[in-house]
Amino acid sequence: HLATSLPLPSERDHLRPRIDLLVFMIDIKSKYSLKNVEASLAYVDASFFLGKVYFLVTGVGRVNYCSVEMSAIWKLGEAYCSPVLFCELELDRVRVATAQRLLRILEICAGHIPGVSALSFGLLMKNSADY
């Protein structure tokens, strides 16, 4: 399910499935995109930041057109203890690989992969970005 911002409308709460993963998309070419994500974070329960929140940064192939500082994105990931993923949605191969990666992360967050928790996987993802 997709939403442009949080909070989600409450009138359909009873129909909404369990939320296992939140992926905040930040378009590196839009300062509004980052501001929208920052505003939406206030509506996320603190327990979700234990391995179930990721930041997906799009438009990384167009560094010349950046409106968002990379340091702001890294600080956001650090502040919320959440991994930052990068992709270029305009390239089919990268878009498919990113979708597959997110589906695998969702399987882990939903508890469908035995022996791997969302928290342990999130920490592994975060630590691998440090190298």
From TrEMBL:
UniProt keyword list: Centromere, Chromosome, Nucleus
Presence of the UniProt keyword Nucleus in the record: yes
Protein name per the record: Centromere protein M
Gene Ontology cellular component annotations, sorted alphabetically: chromosome, centromeric region; nucleus
KW Nucleus (keyword) present: yes
Cell location: Chromosome, Centromere; Nucleus
Gene3D superfamilies reported in the protein's UniProt record: P-loop containing nucleotide triphosphate hydrolases
Pfam families on file: CENP-M
Principal place of residence: nucleus
